[in-house]
Specification:
It is built from eleven helices and 14 strands. The longest helix has 20 residues, at about 145-165. The chain is of the alpha/beta class and about 350 residues long. An eight-stranded parallel β-barrel has the order 3-4-5-10-11-12-13-14. It has a two-stranded antiparallel sheet with strand order 1-2. The chain has helices spanning about 35-45, 75-90, 145-165, 180-185, 200-205, 205-220, 240-255, 270-280, 300, 315, 320-325, and strands at about 10, 15, 20, 50-55, 95-100, 120, 130, 135, 140-145, 170-175, 225, 260-265, 285, 310. Helix 3 runs parallel beside helix 6 (about 205-220) and helix 7 (about 240-255) runs parallel beside helix 8 (about 270-280).
Length: about 350
């Protein structure tokens, strides 16, 4: 029987266990979206994971949706991330950068002068985003033209190359949680009538083309994607994910990606099982749970539901989580007051096992 503590091969990158750090936005980058020394310390402390997946990293200036998030589109950002990856590798870890373009989620006050939020269609998401000027309502995005859609794909490609130059082992494309790739997938936010919208086949095109272009640039072994079928986060309306995602995953499977990462936003295990069957590569699952994902979810590896389980809040409070999972605890309790901001030492000072 396969367990969470057995190794697994991601297209040549051997993970010593099947426990992953889930990507979680923490808004702690320094000026210019450059990671700080705390970022390096935070990820290096968690290098006992089979795989670390970073917080969302914007591939371009207009892709930023929150204050204090890091980028991968400038020389300074690349250098900052190099310090992070060097620290992780020195500690024996493996790390992928999650490339996150937030699309319509955000506000112009978070963007450089003259830029506005963009999306597949001019449809605003309901809700607010926190900014340095306080909470602000999400705005109606400017619809991307066909040429701009292609240019945005190019931004992902450039960021992926920058990630490799910064020492990352690969990239995970963020196609979940209501951000740009997910906005193209969902009929509520994508009301286009051109090649990028309408039918499920057209709505999956952006996700597939981004993945294809990144694979062509850095190779399939360094490219992965995260999806969250039916997830309503950020006001996504996706009433029939079973019509869209199997076709998408079949297209992605043909690319030979390093892995597919599914966030199970609600108990939709039948769809998860279908996607698992449609993807031949390693299958990472962030399962739907009532509380933080914990030891009980390791059984999903043992029964073949997933190859790797990703952990969020519990990993924030327990940098040595793989060791604690092996002994079934004890676990530090996550403290949300330490989660956000560049001066939040609670990222790194939880008691060791």
């Amino acid at each position: 029987m396969t367990t969470a503590f057995d190794p697994i091969d991601l297209s040549g990158l051997v993970l010593p266990n099947r426990i992953a750090l889930a990507p979680m936005t923490r808004s702690r980058a320094g000026a210019g979206g450059v990671p700080t020394g705390l970022t390096a310390e935070y990820y290096a402390q968690r290098a006992g994971a089979g795989l670390l997946i970073t917080e969302g990293v914007q591939p371009s200036p207009v892709g930023q949706g929150y204050p204090g998030t890091p980028g991968l589109h400038s020389a300074e950002q690349i250098a900052g991330w190099r310090e992070v990856t060097d620290a992780v590798h020195a500690a024996g870890g493996r790390i992928f950068a999650q490339l996150m373009h937030t699309g319509r989620v955000g506000h112009p006050v978070l963007l450089p002068d003259g830029l506005v939020n963009v999306g597949p269609s001019p449809v605003a998401a309901r809700g607010q985003v926190y900014t340095h000027e306080g909470p602000k309502d999400l705005v109606t995005p400017r619809e991307l033209t066909g040429d701009e859609v292609r240019a945005t794909i190019g931004d992902f490609v450039t960021a992926a190359r920058n990630a490799v130059d910064a020492g990352f082992d690969g990239v995970e494309l963020h196609g979940a949680n209501g951000y740009l790739i997910h906005q193209f997938l969902a009929p509520g936010s994508n009301r286009r009538t051109d090649e990028w919208g309408g039918s499920p086949e057209n709505r999956i095109r952006f996700a597939v083309e981004v993945a294809k272009a990144v694979v062509a640039e850095i190779g399939a072994a360094r490219t992965a994607i995260r999806l969250s079928p039916g997830n309503p986060f950020n006001d996504i309306e996706e009433p029939e994910p079973e019509r869209t995602y199997p076709a998408l995953v079949r297209e992605l499977d043909a690319l030979g990606l390093a892995y597919l990462h599914i966030l199970e936003a609600s108990p939709i295990r039948d769809l998860v099982t279908t996607l698992r069957k449609n993807f031949d590569g390693p299958f990472v699952l962030n399962p739907a749970t009532e509380g933080p994902t914990g030891h009980d979810e390791l059984a999903l590896i043992e029964d073949g539901t997933a190859d790797i389980i990703s952990f969020g809040a519990l990993f924030l409070a327990n940098p040595d989580l793989p060791a604690r999972l092996r002994t079934r605890g004890p676990y530090n309790t996550p403290d949300q007051s330490t989660y956000y901001g560049g001066d939040a030492k609670g990222y790194t000072d939880y008691p060791a096992l």
